[in-house]
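Hi all, long-time lurker, first post. I run a small reading group and we've been trying to get comfortable going from sequence to structure in the token notation. Rather than ask abstract questions, I figured I'd post a concrete chain and ask someone more experienced to write out its structure so we can walk through it together at our next meeting. Sequence below, copied exactly:
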Amino acid sequence: MKRFMKKAWKVIRSPSAHMSLGVLTLGGFAAGVIFWGAFNTGLEATNTEEFCIGCHEMADNVYVELQDTVHWSNHSGVRATCPDCHVPHKWTDKIARKMQASKEVWGAMFGTISTREKFLEKRLELAQHEWQRFSANNSLECRNCHDYKSMNFDLMSEKAKIQMRRAAERDQSCIDCHKGIAHQLPDMLGGASDAFAQLEQGASVSSFEVGKTYFSVRQLPLFEDDALQTDAGHLNPVTAVKVIEVHDEKLLVELSGWRKTKGFGRVINEDFGFNIVSGLLTKEAAQNDERMETFESQVDELTGLTWQRVNVRLWMKPNALAASTEPLWDYAKETYQSSCSVCHTQPDEDHFDANTWPGMFNGMLSFVNLDGDTQALVLKYLQKHSSDFSDKSH
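-- Answer (accepted) --
Happy to help. Here is the structure in token form:
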């Protein structure tokens, strides 16, 4: 082998005995042109919609979804094809993307998403890869067609105008707000539910002490009777309750807070003037004088409503109660920073006060996929870390 390599090298470095330098140069140039032309022809062939939907994984899933969106059919008649959004237009970026696509070839060979079920299982991971790519290049592929400087904000609806002007001022990436614009959003509820189940298992205590305070991990049912048969309402996540009696399968707990006297006073809030819901009682439980202890009343000057301080003792099952709020806040913070950034860069927790956060948070819920317990937990986190409880000035 060594002798062969030496011989080959000698031939390569020796001048040609039969061809001139010009012939060799022209031949090399022609070969280069042919190679380059063939390479680009092959490259462009992979940048067509026909190529993208050549496998059933794409044709039967995301391509079908695209046909129900504005990028497929609209009043202007302009259609965005697969490569328009998923293949960079700059040559160097395009080559890098093609190199990344080698993983997709591997996945096709081994049937990673060969069925609808497999595709849905991998959908969140696949979507996150694209979201990260769009975030990294500031949604460059979107901006090939959409540009803030070319937008006529006056033609937009009032809601869109407000949002788009803010986005333009920050030169915000399109993908921050438009993740579901061409394809369905992944089902992020399953993963969140699993994580919440792990939180509940890890944070909940198994033994209780009389007189000690614990915190609800999730929404928990309350009962008027020790047989746990008569519904009394429920606790919200991260609500403090003091244990009065401990039994094998039940606890008598005391919930303290404030309620508005207008109506039946069913909503128990954490403190005067703050709409931070600790629990919601049934009408019967809210009017049960044997269970409800009332104290002083105060008028909220901002709203003119009268608030009353109360203690209520009710029964509950001895589960999903934590000794500390720390793991609950950690989970809520992580969820807020991940799930609630699906549509935009989320505001800081202390950007709003406690009474403003419910309205702002409810406006976000249509863009995320969170179960009821997680929603209530994240909202409580935002309220308890709002400007009312922050040392920062605004």
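A couple of things your group might point at:
The mean pLDDT is 85.
The first strand starts at residue 213 and ends at 216.
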